[in-house]
Specification:
single chain; 78 residues
Length: 78
C-alpha cells in the first residue's frame, strides 16, 4: 500500500515517463538487492530478465533524447 501511495504522489510531482521507467526497474532492483544483501541466488532467467529490462530502459532513453534533439533542431531551423 505504501509503494502505491508513493507511486501516485510521484506521478503528481515528476514527469510520468520517468516515474514509469523507475517503476519498470523495480523488479530488477529487488532481485539485485536480494542478491547483494541476502545472498540469494539468481536463476539464469532472472538475469536475462534484468538485462532485457535494462536494455529496454536505456534504449528508450536514447530514442527519446534523439527525438527531442530532432524536434529542437527543427524548431531552430524555422
Amino acid at each position: 500500500m505504501t509503494a502505491y501511495f508513493f507511486y501516485m504522489h510521484a506521478l503528481d510531482r515528476v514527469v510520468p515517463t520517468y516515474v514509469q521507467i523507475c517503476y519498470t526497474l523495480d523488479p530488477a532492483v529487488s532481485c539485485l538487492l536480494g542478491l547483494i544483501i541476502f545472498g540469494q541466488v539468481l536463476a539464469p532467467i532472472q538475469i536475462v530478465g534484468i538485462i532485457v529490462v535494462l536494455v529496454t530502459v536505456i534504449w528508450l532513453q536514447i530514442y527519446e533524447n534523439k527525438r527531442e534533439s530532432q524536434i529542437a533542431k527543427a524548431k531552430a531551423a524555422e
